[in-house]
Design goal:
Chain lengths: ~625, ~350
């Protein structure tokens, strides 16, 4: 049956069977070594882990590699089957980077919606003081939890699901755009690319399954000892993150090699579209730092399953060890979240101001500079942790230092816009909105970085406001800008400008209210990660506004989704260079041809010389027929 | 050009407006400690920087959006063609570098102010456990579930946890410190010098499980004289009846944070009607809540867990924290309840 030949369906069936088989396997091993066969946690964890592996095999993403292992040849390019409808490619293993980019993007939209729903649920609880909404019996029925336990789970999942969304969104942008932007026909490792996408699916499923397995009350940061005593749901969280992390690592190496080895003739590193620098810096971080969250989470799993005492202070361990290991990844991770978006801002501004990007080299190197310095700041998440008191000071210096390359970007954007000829189609609105919002994320950073002020701000809503600022400014707004911008390249049609503008204004104004509210209550003494707050603090009105703003943002995204689905079929046809962009991908037809560039492009000028008469960036010669 | 002059003036105006606006919002809680004064001074510096950099970027952006927009009717228009200026790049790298270095130096100085040690500080041992706080005044041996402090004297809090990581924070005092489990090696210090008399709330500031949001304690700052009186009272041996002393211990040691007296369920079983009743245990069996049962429930809570309640929530070390006499008095109090 054609349904059963879809990679996704096969993967899911394999996962179900693999989980059951894995559980049986663990029970058998336990019985053989003399333990009671059934113990919920090790059996379920073992089963779920094996189920995830089974998923990967079930999709068929490993099949070419197995053939090579057996000495069999495979095709270099897997052509799409002309007899099957195009949509089937997206639900199966496909090696085309454009298909994989869409797969990442659509999956990210699903998880965005899910993470958003979790937020709306607990924001409804927080709209008023007193535990009320989440005490509703229906939640006990659905999730086996309610009240503060359910709050803790929803809040924790909101964080991690959103992080997974951003990582997949970054994967969407990098994988779809990088080959097109450098004149390549695919990524260096198409099969690895497909693997890096597909491993996210069991990862996300397992992560969300925690909701139905008792939840977990630790926040996405999972600090022991609390995570060691959390319910079974925490294991699903730990494993889900592990899988999503694998995607980052394998995706990262792919981007690095592609950028270093597959640029078109004449495209030196400083003649690449600027987004590629952002994607490269991001990939370097993903490839080298992600291991640390895998490690720290694995250690928690081992402490839970086998009683290892890494973080058990009463047995010679140290809970602070977890925090150092965890944040060594998780700080650079936030630069993974924002560097592509910041690269997008640099990429899109010249198109809509019709003048060159200012200071290309400095912007390119600032991405690398942020990535580098970002590895040396992690303990600013630990200023109150009880770490060595003096050691906090160098971290304050390094943390404040990141402002310098970040400032270079802002000043360069201002100089790019200055004396331009501005138009404001939807992608430009989102780009400008991103700059304003990321600016506020940036200026709320230093108070967190100077230790003494952080002693007040740590674990408050000021931090929550700061990171929502940086995430919306550095990822969400640029991500939407990119979709509105490249939608014609993907579908051959434009999205509705009117509804795009509605989306923008609702999201921008909604976000301003949400952010303002969070920063204000945080300064005033509101802790984070709390299911309820004291009415005597007079935060009720602000919280109601934050909740309403959250709903407005959600609605705006819903409008976007409807716009995208509708426009893909019925949008205004847009087959040419709709934005008059100099970039190579706009010199070929839309939707982009299957193999991108029939003939390799040739770089003959600078990428951003808008307004210089007679200048071209790339020559895309039509296929010659024999001259 | 004229553009730069106009923008320059607008940036200055905007900086002043934003700075004044942010200060007038008065977003920080009252300054009730010496440390708060230093920290708020540093916050003031940050507000200056925030106001300036916000204005700098936003004014340029808004100005450009208005002045440099493409007017209707012009099709083939492009912007001014310039793409680099090395001098400018160096300037806007070096100046921010200088600013952040100065800020870091100031930050280090303020940290020094905040952590300055007074050898005559009053020592209080703070014990956090899911989900209550206990305070022991080292010198006098008094124990309390409220943190009563003398004004104008440095307090040295020695923080420890009995289970997971918690965090000590009173917003009006500003400073915060995580509270770690693991015994003596993991005790962490926090120094606070209250300068305002009043009532404040201590709220746990590190997610610690189900009741994290409600893990509170009262903080009362009183005059030095009033404090001495209170301390003497608390440190004194209890010379009341057994039941009355028991009542005092269950307040001081935080039992009432989890066990109610009126039948409501907080974290642990209610004590209303408990003594002498038949209790259903987690393993399904029944037990009589006599003296032995109550005693065991205090010193070894996991031994006979009541059905519907979780293991490992009640602290396991009350046998060390309470004297045998105090335990007897607590049991007497429980037995005196209706």
């Amino acid at each position: 049956m054609s349904f059963l030949s879809l990679g996704l369906v096969r993967g899911l069936i394999a996962q179900v069977l693999g989980t059951a088989a894995g559980m049986g396997f663990v029970m058998m091993v336990r019985a053989l070594i003399g333990l009671p066969a059934w113990n919920r946690e090790p059996v379920v964890v073992g089963g779920v882990a094996i189920g995830a592996i089974a998923f990967i095999f079930g999709t068929g993403v490993m099949s070419d590699w197995f053939k090579w292992a057996k000495g069999e040849e495979t095709e270099d390019h897997h052509e799409p089957d002309p007899d099957q409808p195009a949509w089937r490619r997206y639900l199966s293993v496909d090696y085309d980077h454009k298909v994989i980019g869409i797969q990442y993007g659509v999956t990210a939209m699903f998880t965005l919606g899910l993470g958003g729903v979790f937020a709306l649920l607990f924001r409804t609880e927080l709209a008023k003081s007193g535990i009320d909404f989440l005490n509703n019996g229906i939640f006990e029925v659905l999730f086996g939890q309610n009240g503060p336990d359910l709050y803790n789970t929803l809040m924790s999942l909101h964080g991690m699901v959103m992080i997974a969304t951003i990582l997949m969104g970054v994967g969407a942008l990098s994988n779809y755009l990088v080959p097109l932007l450098i004149g390549a026909n695919d990524m260096a490792f198409p099969r690895l690319n497909a693997f890096a996408f597909w491993v996210n699916v069991p990862g996300a499923l397992i992560l969300v399954s925690s909701l139905f397995l008792g939840g977990f009350d630790t926040g996405w940061t999972g600090y022991p000892p609390l995570s060691v005593r959390a319910p079974l749901g925490v294991q699903m969280f730990l494993m889900g993150v592990y899988l999503v992390g694998l995607s980052s690592i394998t995706g990262g190496i792919n981007i690095i090699v592609t950028v270093l080895k597959m640029r078109a003739p004449g495209m030196s590193l400083f003649k690449m579209p600027i987004f590629v620098w952002g994607a490269l810096a991001t990939a370097v971080i993903q490839f080298s730092a992600t291991q640390l969250i895998g490690l720290s989470f694995l250690m928690v799993m081992l402490q839970r399953l086998f009683g290892m005492s890494f973080f058990d202070a009463t047995a010679g361990g140290n809970p602070l060890l977890f925090q150092h290991l965890f944040w060594f990844y998780s700080h650079p991770a936030v630069y993974v979240f924002v560097l592509p978006g910041l690269g997008l801002i640099s990429e899109l501004l010249p198109v809509f101001v019709r003048k060159p990007l200012f200071g290309y080299k400095w912007i390119a190197l600032s991405s690398m500079g942020i990535a580098l310095v970002g590895f040396f700041v992690w303990a600013h998440h630990m200023f109150t942790s009880g770490m060595s008191a003096y050691l906090r000071v160098p971290f304050m210096y390094s943390t404040l230092l990141v402002a310098v390359p970040t400032g270079v970007k802002f000043f360069s954007w201002v100089a790019t816009i200055w004396q331009g000829k501005l138009t404001f189609p939807t992608p430009m609105l989102f780009t400008l909105g991103a700059i304003v919002i990321f600016l506020m994320g940036g200026i709320t950073g230093p108070p967190n970085g100077t230790i003494a002020t952080d002693l007040h701000l740590h674990d408050t809503y000021f931090i929550v406001g700061h990171f929502h600022n940086t995430m919306f400014g550095g990822f969400m707004f640029p991500f939407f800008a990119a979709i509105y911008f490249w939608f014609p390249k993907i579908t051959g049609r434009k999205m509705s400008e009117l509804w795009g503008k509605v989306h923008f204004w609702l999201m921008f104004l909604g976000f301003m209210v949400m952010m303002g509210g969070q920063l204000i209550v945080g300064l005033g003494g509101m802790r984070r990660r709390i299911a309820d707050y004291d009415p005597a603090l007079n935060f009720d009105t602000t919280h109601l506004l934050i909740t309403i703003a959250g709903f407005v943002i959600f609605i705006s995204v819903l409008i976007f989704v409807i716009n995208a689905i509708y426009s893909a079929r019925r949008g205004e046809v847009a087959e040419g260079n709709v934005w008059s962009s100099r970039s190579p991908e706009w010199q070929i037809p839309s939707p982009a041809p299957v193999h991108n560039y029939e003939v390799p492009i040739e770089v003959v000028g600078d990428p951003y010389d808008y307004g210089l008469p007679g200048s071209t960036y790339v020559n895309v010669r039509p296929a010659t027929t024999g001259d | 050009m004229i553009h730069y002059v106009i923008v320059g003036i607008l940036v200055v105006i905007s900086t002043i407006l934003v700075r004044t606006g942010l200060h007038s919002l008065d977003l920080l809680p009252e300054q009730a400690s010496l440390q708060a004064r230093s920290i708020d001074w540093l916050f003031g510096i940050h507000i200056d920087l925030i106001a300036f950099f916000f204005s700098l970027i936003v004014v340029f952006l808004l100005y450009s959006i208005i002045v440099f927009r493409r007017r209707r009717g012009s099709e083939e228009e492009v912007g001014a063609h310039f793409s680099s200026n090395t001098k400018l790049e160096v300037i806007w790298t070096i100046i921010p570098l200088g600013i952040v270095l100065v800020l870091a130096v100031l930050g280090a100085q303020i940290l020094g102010d905040v952590e300055r040690r007074d050898p005559g500080a009053l020592e209080v041992d703070v014990t956090a456990s899911q989900w209550s706080w206990r305070f022991e005044y080292t010198e006098s041996g008094a124990t309390s579930s409220d943190l009563v402090l003398p004004v104008d004297r440095q307090i040295l809090l020695r923080l420890r946890s009995e289970d997971v990581i918690h965090s000590f924070w009173v917003p009006e005092f500003r400073v915060k410190q995580d509270v770690l489990p693991g015994g003596e090696d993991f005790v962490r210090e926090l120094r606070i010098t209250p300068v305002e008399e009043g009532e404040f709330k201590l709220r746990c500031a590190e997610l610690c499980g189900q009741q994290h949001y409600a893990m509170l304690a009262d903080v009362v700052v009183v005059s030095q004289a009033d404090f001495e009186v209170w301390l003497e009272q608390k440190a004194a041996e209890c010379d009341l009846s057994n039941e009355e002393c028991g009542q005092r211990w269950v307040e001081d040691f935080g039992c009432l944070g989890c066990h109610s007296l009126d039948g409501s369920e907080i974290v642990g079983p209610t004590w209303q009607g408990l003594a002498g009743s038949t209790v259903t245990l987690a393993d399904g069996s029944q037990a009589l809540a006599d003296y032995d049962y109550l005693h065991e429930s205090i010193v070894d809570p996991n031994a006979r867990l009541v059905s519907g309640f979780e293991a490992d929530v009640m602290p396991q070390n009350f046998a060390e924290v309470l004297t045998p006499e105090q335990i007897d008095q607590i049991i007497a109090f429980i037995q005196s309840l209706e």
